[in-house]
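Hello,

Following up on my earlier ticket. Below are the two sequence lines again, exactly as submitted.
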Amino acid sequence: MSTPVLAAANVTKSYRLGKREIPVLRGVDLALMPGERVALLGASGAGKSTLLHVLGLLDAPTSGQVLFDGRPVHDLPVAERARLRHEHTGFVFQFYHLIPELTALQNVLLARMMATSTLAYWRTRGAARAAAMDLLAQVGLQDRLHHRPSELSGGERQRVAIARALLAEPKVVLADEPTGNLDSATAAGVVELMFSIQQQRGLAFLLVTHNEDLARRCDRIVRMRDGVVQGEPART
Amino acid sequence: MIAAFSPFLALRYLLTRRINLLAMFGVTFAVWAMIVVNSVFTGFVSEIRTDVRRASPEMMLTDLPLDTGYEPLRAALEADTAVAATAPRLRHHGLLQPLRVPKGLQPRTEAAELNFDHMESGFALLLGIDPAREEAVTPLRQWVARSEEVFALHHVMLPPSTVLLDPDPDRRAQLLLPDATEWLARRRAGLAVDTPKSEYRSAWPGVLLGWRRAPYTPWLREGDPIDLLTAASVPTTDGTPQLRSHRVRVAFAGYFATGYRAFDETTALLPIETLRTMFGQDIHDPDSIDLVTDVAIRLQPGLSAHAITAARDRLQRAAQAVLPAGSAPCSVLDWQQQNTVFLSAVATEQAMMQFVLFVVMLVAAFVIYAVLHMMVVQKWKDIGILSALGGTPRAVGAVFLLCGVVVAVLGTALGTGLGTLSALSLNDANEWLFATTGLELFPRRLFDLQQVPVRLDPAWLVQVATGAIVFAVLVALFPARKAARMNPVQAFAHE
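Thanks for your patience. The regenerated structure is below:
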């Protein structure tokens, strides 16, 4: 059996509110195999987004481990975690989170600038630009390269965000309700696009959603309630 | 290593947020003000110091006991190899009362309400000098010649006095006016003249007045008689002091202009013998004392600061040795020590001005801080995105630090350029403004200067530019650090 590309082992996360300790994750075990598409379902406040942030190394667990390719990574130095996030993880958010001052092309290119020095990027900017344009063409935005987010529709913005998540060629994509802010027709288009790219590239895909129909199109559904994984057992 | 996104994003933020211009212009204004104000102030201070230096002997022996004679001191001081020349000086106070005062122009202040701070009363600091010796220690002739330039600035054509040019050294020592001039002056004043003009010989000692008295006695013409009234406490035979007043008639010999305002306002130069005679030390009396209150000293040229300090101490000891045993210590002061109060006041004023400019820079730095801090707060979602994409806290902070650096560098470059240009063209601007509107940015006549004394010091430019950049960058570190420490999860938690 192959090693999970990303796994949470008995992860807990709690926040302190004054003198009170608020537990959000209570010993979560979850494994994401290479090329696997997993849906994370749960009500608001179940801890889905927190788990996503912990798995994406944006937040540290209170206890437990986050493993990447079987290696514990949750307690690495901050710069190392940033590098790992850049190289192996792509994020897609419900509210797109594009930088408003940049065009669609620049937003995508930003992903290439993260771990490269100014000089090194300057030398390879032609290749980076070509790759970004290619990705934007794949998501159907070849004619919207130089438009700013404010000039794009919701669906187009999410496509830019998907292209940005893929430019660094990650192994894992963590998507937090990526269609939650789109109308159903647009959402369907975005879902098709995401799933086709996921299949083409063999990405591990963790999709946080409220949508049961969408969840059913994944290989596996993981349900969360009150910070605990329920239903289908996690593969660890 | 600076990640490529830091300068890229910093530039985009700068170009798309106009409020950054406010921060940049804040730095520009502060640097501009520092350069222009300081260059003008430095120019003024330099002029003031030059004027004070011109009005003061290189060194001065002072704090001498009463009845001190010049000759023993001269011998003691001139024995020192560092001394080039000495000159006796006798200081006292007095009232100058011109005999010929046109009707309606009498002084408004009555004798009973003398205002010693004002020249209108005729009050003067009398400085008795030996012109020949004085010329060896101070630029006396230059003082007299300079009066013509100063009057010309005020559109008054008045040739300088010629009393120092008399070929007869005895007449020069008494500052005597040409015979015909005094003869005519006597007639003008309505005084009896028994001698024909061709046989008349000048008799009144001359008095040279600081040019700043001129506005109060505009009718005075060369040779006009002036009564000099003074008083001194003299011991009587039984030892009790008695106040004795003296009156002597002198002739107005012209004006002098050192440039040092206080000196030119208050001082009247007259032959030292005239003052000595008033104190009972008649030159013709073999027992008289060649009375001095100070001795002006000129040192040999080219002495180092260390050698001058050493000479000052030596001269003090040499002079003290000549004075009667038990005398209070005399002092030897260099030109700066002679004017300590004034020069300290100027230095304090300059320090205060620099403090005010520093506050201007502080405000500019605060504007940078406020603008960057606001940017960090407004961009907290961007900070979250950058972290999610793999940006390290350091690289995220660098975005905002680079914004500060660019604002500081551009603001400083613009301020330095504008400041230099303004300082260099200040006189042209002043001329233009005066020609166009009749107004002056800097009233030159107030300071008796041909032009605004701008002194642009390259070292100061470098200091200001470097200081402004360093200061602004240090201030920018705070919002940058805040950005670096922001928790990226916060950006996504409150949607």
